[in-house]
Amino acid sequence: MTRRQGALVALAALIAASAWYSLRHVTLDSDYSAFLPAGTSDTQRALMRELREGLGSRVVLIALGGAPQPELAQASRKLVAALEQSGAFRYANNGSGNLAQRELALIGEHRYALSDRLDAPDPFSRDALRAALEERLASLSTSAGVLDKLLLASDPTAETRRVLARMSPMRSPPRSDGVWFDPEGKRALLVAQTRAFGSDLEGQAGAVAALEQAFAASRTSGAMTLEYSSPGTMAVRSRALIAGDARTLSLVSMAGVLAILAWAYRSPAVVALCVLPAVCGLLAGVLIVDAGFGSIHGITLAFGATLLGEAVDYPTYLLTQMREGASAHEVTARIGRLLGLAVLTTVCGAFALLFSGFPGLAQLGAMTVTGVLVAGAATLWVLPHVVPAGWRPPPPPRWSWLSGSTGRSWRPALRWGLVAVATACVLALAWQRPWWDDDLASMSPLPASAKSSDAQLRSALGAPDVRYVLTVSGESREDALRRSEALRPVLDAAVASRQLGAFDLVSDLVPSEDTQARRRQALPDPQRLRADLESAAAGLPFRPGVFEPFVEGVARARDVAPVTPETFNDSALGFKMDGLLRQDGGRWHVVVPLTEVRDTAGLVRALPADARLIDLRGETTAMMAAYRERGLGFSAIGLVLIYAVLAVGLRSPARAAKVLLPVVLAAIAAAAILVAFLEPLTVFHYVALLLTIGIGVNYALLMASPVARDDPAAMWRTLAVVSGTALVTFGVLAFAHAPVLHAIGVTVTVGVIASLVFAAMLVRPVAEGVA
Amino acid sequence: MISSRSRALDCATALAIAFAMAGPALALEPGEVLAGLARVERSDATFEETRHIAALTAPVVRRGTLRYVRPSDLEMVVQTPVPERVRVSGTTLTIEGRNGVREVRLADMPAIAGWVESVRATLAGDAPALGRHFTVRASGDISRWQLDLTPLSAELAAFVTRVTISGANAQIGRIDVIEASGDRSEMVVSPVRGKP
Questions:
Q1: The total number of structural domains that make up chain B
Q2: Quick one: which of B51, B117, B16 has its CA closest to A143?
Q3: Which of A96, A135, A139, A146 to mutate to test the interface with B (most CBs of B within 10 A)?
Q4: Does A735 reside within a domain?
């Protein structure tokens, strides 16, 4: 066995072993939230967790359409029953009213624990009872008295109604045939809550399946349609989109890269050699990411295919420079420095990815750094041993339009083109296109149509996005509830002074144990209540003994168990409760949704020190901006690193600057072109810009190298291959649904083209000055 | 001459109908009563309602006016003992009372909707609307008829056991309601004539 064969066998064994290990032991992750920001402050982290796992993430909005109203109403009723039976849903509501009864019964049962009348001194005095009875009598003489009559005997002081009046009314859609419909009457509307958390993608996928199945069983005609939306089901759909992308895009870009290599080398064996270091890099990347992060994301894997396009470049530097009579080792010695610099600058380009603060981007960064380093090492130290002795590439094509080393003929044309693009960019920017996109929704991989359908269902169901919430938190549930109770007078005053439209306080539904104990103590004993009632009813036409259920109810309330959040389980109120009171990080948080906030400054002044007003929209925007700035900061550091690597590698800070300058200009131009013609920038574009510099600088290095002077045709071919593979892989990436892949793809594609143009215009071979 | 001829014609029609029915004593169809009511464009009346409520030792008596305007406006103004104005128009119910104005969508409250419809659909002579909420039986004859309405839905039956409306020709005279709770009320309706 020759040395070459030995090296080949060893390498093949190593690759096979790591491939086997990867398939057997690497965990594939597909939760898109790795590519959503985790938040930079406690508030933002809580907010993002809430979006992913909170109450809202479990609520599915459902619409049935495509049939006449009575049929839709019938299907809607069947669907509710089927959903509740499926086991995947905790709760389903179509407005048919059975639920309201359940909730009313619960509030009625606990009316004395919940009513703030009990906070007043002597709430059931003779005078208070007299006033209540006179009021009931008047009410019996009105048209609505019929309803009042139901509670007359058990609740003559109307505590149930008092409790209900304090809760902000739930807006609900109009009803037809007894169930909710959209305002146009075309679609029956339902709301359901999944048992699974929004972050539990398997559970959410199960709920989607159960919903589809329940619909199939409930539809009355083939024409009937089902629409649904929820953060959880959207996550399930995102996952499917991303999985589809990963397969298609990897295959397409691999095919593209292989085609370019086949064109350059016309030899399957050499193409295979070229791919070898890249495969090593990819496998090493997968193993490192899996070891470092515990799993590897589907998106990272899809990105790995793109990385392959970058890593095949390194063998290209070597192979396209092979000459008659020169061994692979000699060529390696000649271009070793160039290759090393190319590898290191690309590694620095991934710097911003690593530290962007997104776990997903950090995976991409780790993948890039590992993959590029290993592929580079394999090219430098393994490839020379396995290249067949005496092999040389087919002669490079004579591109007449590049006409020699200086290419004078095309430079003016390029310049005019540049002027045109720059002018167009300035004009487009002058039209006040936004530079940044700080909308969290832009991070979702779903198409705009899915997002707008969600917004439409949300508004039809009267569940608009709340913009402002108030939060207080405490050491314990009791502490948090007490603080919530303290907000009552402040918020009442704010409503009275029109700073605020309405609010929803969880302590109205679950008062602190303290308050409940005080209210229990305020309840009179049966003998006293009976006596006071009798004297209060004197002269009124109430039949004696008619209020005995009231006396018994009060007596029962004196030693009933306190109300807890669990009291309302499996009712719409429990469902509301989950959103308003939550335990997180050892503390209890009360969330108070506010509607129609008209005077934030005034409200903030009036609030106690422990309460915080959060502008949800402002907070997410600030968070995205913070990530953007962080991305910018790390990109700057990455840029400095690239410069340092070049300065050391080229042994001249001035030459390093000459190589780097056109690429930095190209990155700026790419950003301008993106904003002007394609899309505003997110943090994903930012980190991709640094990656662009890391890649583009390789082209400038190549054009500045002695190779460019000695054999321009070979240099252009090398450049065509390395930039061609980059354009193919990143160009394909631009078609990904996942915003992160799309942003990286489109930025690098535009950036690579710009780098080529700027480098071709500004970079001369090193020896120019010497000659 | 003309009048006697037309009376003869009426007799002929009545005979024809009687033969066509050719049947037992319960010859009156709800449709006949409602067809007469359906020709009334607008009606004004005073009412006196007596509510017998188990919890009270004496009945509550309410007095006021009723007005119906085709097709779907019904207004009840209560003068004593507690002034109030209740309006049903299309699909909304508005109550102006001592606690201000309240407006509800009838579709949101199926029980109330049935209740309102028992009176309004009868006044409108709208058999399909009535049939959505009640089974309707007629008795008597057209000059002294009675409609018995029994709720169809459980939601409505939880409130009302039976509504009996009686009248003469195209005029309602009395509405009796038996509630599920056992309480009942009678409303005597007297037409007001000579209003513009």
A1: 1
A2: B51
A3: A146
A4: yes
Say if CB B153 and CB B173 are below 8 A apart: no
Whether B166 is in a domain gets the answer yes
Per-residue model confidence (pLDDT) at position A445? 66
**Contact yes or no for B95 and A175 at CB 8 A:** no
CB pair distance less than 8 Å for B84 and A142: yes
Contact criterion met (CB below 8 Å) for A209 and A196: no
Residues of chain B neighbouring A142 (CB-CB closer than 8 A): 78, 82, 84, 95, 97-98
Assigned domain for B77 exists? yes
Q: Could you give the 3-state DSSP secondary structure of residue A666?
A: helix
Domain of residue B138 covers 28-191
Residue B74, beta-bridge partner list: B68, B88
60-99 of A, contacting B, C-beta below 8 A: 97
SS3 assignment for A96-118: CCHHHHHHHHHHHHCHHHHCHHH
Q: Can you tell me the distance from the alpha carbon of A333 to that of A335, in angstroms, rounded to the nearest whole number?
A: 6
Q: Is B18 a domain residue?
A: no
Q: B188 CA to chain A: closest CA distance, Å? A: 16
Residue in chain B closest to A101 (alpha carbons) equals B155
Dihedral-angle region of residue A173 (phi above 0 means left; psi in -120 to 50 means alpha; beta otherwise): beta
B44 touches chain A (CB under 8 A): no
ipTM of the complex: 0.79
With contact defined as beta carbons under 8 Å apart, do A682 and A442 qualify? yes
Residue in A with minimal Cα distance to B106:
A175
What single string gives the DSSP state of each residue in A29-90?
E--GGGGS---SSHHHHHHHHHHHHSGGGGEEEEEEESS-HHHHHHHHHHHHHHHHHHSSEE
Indicate the helix (H) or strand (E) that contains A188: strand A188-194
The H or E element containing residue A581 is strand A581-584
The pLDDT, as a whole number, for residue A454 is 72
Instruction: Please choose, from the candidates B175, B99, B120, B80, the residue with its C-alpha nearest in 3D space to the C-alpha of residue A144.
Output: B99
Instruction: State how far the alpha carbon of B110 is from the alpha carbons of A15, A98, A506, B118, in Å.
Output: 72, 12, 30, 12
- Nearest neighbour of B110 by CB, restricted to A141, A178, A542: A178
Write out chain B residues lying below 8 Å of A143, CB-based.
76, 78, 84, 86, 95, 97
* Domain region containing A426: 3-25+235-432+652-768
Run means of pLDDT, 10 residues per run, chain A, 771 residues: 70 79 73 72 71 72 90 92 88 72 84 91 90 89 77 88 75 76 88 82 88 91 88 79 80 89 84 86 89 84 78 84 76 84 89 82 89 90 79 69 52 71 73 70 68 70 69 91 94 90 88 93 92 90 90 90 86 75 84 85 89 81 81 88 91 88 89 84 85 90 81 82 90 86 92 89 60 27
Spell out which residues of chain B touch residue A99, defining contact as CB-CB under 8 Å.
none
Under 8 Å between Cβ of A290 and A335: no
Query: Which residue type does A273 have?
Result: L
Segment B161-187 shows an average pLDDT of 90
Burial of A147 (0-12, 13-18, 19+ CB in 10 A): middle
For A574-586, give one letter per residue: b (16+ CB within 10 A) or e. Answer: bbbbbbbbbeeee
Residues 115-154 of chain A with CB under 8 A from chain B are 137-138, 140-144, 146, 149-150, 152-153
The CA distance from A141 to the nearest CA of chain B, in Å, is: 6
Domain membership of residue A255 (yes or no) is yes
Distance between CA A101 and CA A468 in Å, rounded? 31
Contact (CB<8Å) B60/A542? no
In a domain, B150, yes or no: yes
* Chain A nearest C-alpha distance from B95 (Å): 8
- A539 occurs within a structural domain: no
Please check whether residue A590 is in contact with residue A506, taking contact to mean a CB–CB distance below 8 angstroms.
yes
